[in-house]
Predict the 3D structure of the following.
Amino acid sequence: MLRHEIDVGTVLTGRFQIERKVRSGGMSTVLQGIDLQTHEQVAIKILRQEDVQHGNAASRLLAEALVLARLNHPGIVGYIAHGMTPNGQPFLVMQWLPGEDLAHRLRYRPLRLQETLALVTTIAQALAYVHQQGVIHRDPRQKHTLWG
């Protein structure tokens, strides 16, 4: 059983089947799943049960879903859907991007100059696009954060 009381194999909203837990963060857990309509892999971000009860975490996740739904850029993960689990936990479904976690990669080998420049360029282009859309990304848990 996962920390969020969502079992592997659970199907959310009749469409997204949980396959495995990928990572937990400050307020949520990311799961890998399958979209039963398209048969594509998806990333499912679920708000932790304890955070549903406290603060405005649920409204922040909904706001994130609504912002992501209107963005369309190759440097930004694609929105698929959002909803609630049977136990009332908000979730956000995004495209699954296969690959390697940057922190993991840096533990065994630094990026070459070309890789670094490509990554920085992609991030800068995505940030410029997001800012043109009127979105400012920051971590709401920290008062003086430029980059969340």
